[in-house]
């Protein structure tokens, strides 16, 4: 075995070396970060983080208890007033310094990410750039928090509207984008003057812990950002969410968990942001630029091995272009190289775990049983690790589970349609509404789609919409609130309105 993985043998160690034959990273943090210091979990428990491409243990990470969660909240609460009173320029500078450090350590972060999550190194590097942009964007927004001053309509008074940080934030992030989902929450919270307790996903905590260490090196004041990885997310989170001192819950993950968290948040009347599941339609119209549509479809589907809430889930292709589109896409799919994310030339890494493989296989088998035509792939890959072959299904029939389930894997499901009206109806036939993709060269049709598709985001002739400068988020069961852009900052601000009499009145 070529693995050089070494893990800490004592529970008090808070760093380790992770790696394989291709990449090795030293000093990866494995502790809890509370009140400005790394520490083991109370009681000393740890949980293992594994490489999905081999199943090998990469590291043992401190497993926060509910008491650790409350200790982290104590630290965030203690730091809140000072952080809110810290000059915006200083808050901005901390984010900007962390942005610079993330870029300095980009290769190591990408290696850690690929090892624990599985995606190819090139994609991990892409996430480092994307994730870092939230640090830069919100470092710029931190100094632009505004307000309002105006005369009331009666002319008898003046209204002053000011913005204040909402207060301590609890952030829960998923495993699929372990850097970007963390920066997308931490950066606006810190920019706004909020302190944070973050719980990363237990499948991929190492990237996030690495990021936190860079925040520490950038001069993070004690308690402003605290991180508590845990194997029992529910046990850790419930008392934090129920604590009266918490003011905001921000979550990215599945719709069922988001819905359960909203119920808990309701008891405490917390401000919430929820980035939940998607079931993105990808529409290709007869007038599309075929090459562009195929390129973009490959990105929309296979980025992150399909494990993205923004992944194109349901392809709807108009009859006149369907044969050409399917043929071109299957040629590209058949050329994809499967392998470990750390190996050169890999296009498709493993799925995160065996449940994810079972899910993809089950959806494909169901669709084929209901009459879909298997054009490419359609099977598990016979090698160690949790791999599923990139797959293309054509003529997927109504009633197939794949049309109503978030696939989270490298499977294309194509249904053909005749008219624009039918395409829009099919696209909207879901409880989700995160993102849609549409390929058409007709300007007016694109505008009609923008107004009629039930979605928070539309990629019009493009397969990737994520950008720190624009509001990311969904409608319907895909969530509440937006991340990125100036709107992402508003999620962490409270509005206060002051009325004062006309200063000129006698
Ligand atoms: P996924 O299917 O992408 O793993 P989940 O919604 O299950 O999505 O998980 C997203 C994040 O939510 C992870 O950090 C996970 O640990 C956390 N999580 C899962 N269940 C709960 C829960 N009941 N309470 C709090 N956090 C949870």
Could you explain how this protein is built, in words?
There is one protein chain. The chain is an alpha/beta fold. The chain is 37% helix and 22% strand. The protein has helices at residues 66-85, 88-104, 106-117, 121-141, 180-192, 205-217, 233-242, 255-267, 290-302, 319-334, 354-369, 420-428, 443-452, 485-490, and strands spanning 15-19, 24-29, 32-34, 37-39, 46-50, 57-62, 148-151, 157-165, 169-172, 196-199, 225-227, 248-252, 271-275, 280-284, 312-318, 373-376, 391-394, 411-417, 435-439, 457-460, 479-480, 493-501. α2 (88-104) crosses α6, α3 packs antiparallel against α6 and α4 (121-141) packs parallel to α5. The radius of gyration is 24 Å and the shape is globular. The N and C termini lie far apart (87 Å). Residues 1-11 have low confidence and may be disordered. Bound molecules: adenosine-5'-diphosphate. Adenosine-5'-diphosphate (ADP) is lined by residues 172-175, 199, 201-202, 233-234, 237, 253-254, 257, 260-261.
Ligand roster: adenosine-5'-diphosphate
**CATH superfamily heading of the largest domain:** Aldehyde Dehydrogenase, Chain A, domain 1
CATH class call of the largest domain: Alpha Beta
Overall 3D form: globular
User: Given the helix and strand composition, which structural class is it?
Assistant: alpha/beta
Distance between the termini: 87 Å
Strand order of the largest sheet: 16-17-18-15-14-19-20
Tally of discrete structural domains: 2
Average predicted local confidence, pLDDT: 96
The helix content is 25-40%
CATH architecture term of the largest domain: 3-Layer(aba) Sandwich
Measured on Cα atoms, how large is the radius of gyration? 24 Å
Largest sheet: 7 strands, mixed
Number of helices: 14
Please report the total strand number as a whole number. Answer: 22
Query: CATH topology of the largest domain, what is it called?
Result: Aldehyde Dehydrogenase, Chain A, domain 1
Low-confidence stretches: 1-11
Strand content: 15-25%
């Amino acid at each position: 075995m070529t693995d050089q993985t070494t893990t800490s043998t004592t529970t008090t160690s808070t760093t380790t070396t992770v790696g394989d034959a291709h990449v090795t990273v030293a000093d990866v943090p494995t502790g809890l970060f509370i009140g400005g210091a790394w520490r083991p979990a109370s009681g000393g428990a740890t949980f293992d983080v594994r490489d999905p491409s081999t199943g090998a243990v990469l590291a043992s990470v401190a497993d926060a208890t509910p008491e650790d969660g409350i200790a982290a909240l104590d630290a965030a609460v203690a730091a809140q007033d000072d952080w809110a009173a810290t000059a915006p320029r200083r808050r901005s500078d901390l984010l900007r310094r962390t942005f610079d450090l993330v870029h300095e350590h980009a290769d190591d972060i990408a290696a850690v990410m690929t090892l624990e999550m599985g995606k190819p190194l090139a994609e991990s590097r892409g996430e480092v750039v994307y994730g870092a942009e939230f640090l830069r964007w919100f470092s710029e927004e931190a100094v632009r928090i505004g307000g309002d001053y105006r005369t009331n309509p009666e002319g008898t008074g003046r209204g002053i509207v000011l913005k204040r940080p909402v207060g301590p934030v609890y952030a829960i992030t998923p495993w699929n984008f372990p850097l970007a989902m963390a920066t997308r929450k931490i950066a606006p919270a810190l920019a706004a003057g909020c302190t944070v307790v973050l719980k990363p996903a237990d499948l991929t905590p190492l990237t996030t812990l690495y990021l936190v260490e860079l925040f520490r090196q950038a001069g993070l004041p004690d308690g402003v950002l605290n991180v508590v990885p845990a194997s029992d997310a529910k046990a850790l989170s419930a008392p934090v969410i129920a604590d009266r001192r918490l003011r905001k819950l921000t979550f990215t993950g599945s719709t069922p968990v988001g819905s359960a968290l909203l119920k808990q948040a309701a008891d405490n009347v917390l401000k919430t942001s929820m980035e939940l599941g998607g079931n993105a339609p990808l529409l290709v119209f007869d007038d599309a630029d075929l090459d562009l549509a195929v390129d973009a479809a490959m990105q929309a589907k296979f980025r992150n091995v399909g494990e993205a809430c923004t992944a194109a889930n349901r392809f709807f292709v108009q009859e006149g272009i369907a044969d050409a589109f399917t043929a071109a896409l299957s040629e590209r799919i058949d050329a994809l190289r499967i392998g470990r994310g750390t190996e050169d030339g890999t296009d498709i890494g493993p799925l995160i775990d065996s449940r994810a493989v079972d899910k993809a296989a089950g959806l494909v088998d169901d669709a084929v049983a209901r009459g879909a035509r298997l054009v490419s792939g359609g099977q598990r890959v016979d090698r160690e690790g949790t791999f599923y072959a990139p797959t293309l299904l054509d003529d997927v029939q109504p009633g197939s589970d794949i049309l109503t389930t978030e696939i989270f894997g490298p499977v294309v499901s194509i249904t053909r349609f005749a008219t624009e009206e039918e395409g829009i109806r099919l696209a909207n036939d879901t409880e989700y509404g995160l993102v849609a993709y549409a390929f058409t060269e007709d300007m007016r049709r694109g505008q009609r789609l923008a107004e009629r598709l039930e979605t928070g985001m539309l990629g019009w002739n493009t397969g990737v919409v994520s950008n720190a400068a624009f509001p990311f988020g969904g409608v319907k069961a895909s969530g509440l609130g937006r991340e990125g852009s100036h709107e992402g900052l508003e999620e962490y601000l409270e509005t206060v309105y002051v009325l004062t009499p006309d200063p000129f009145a006698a």
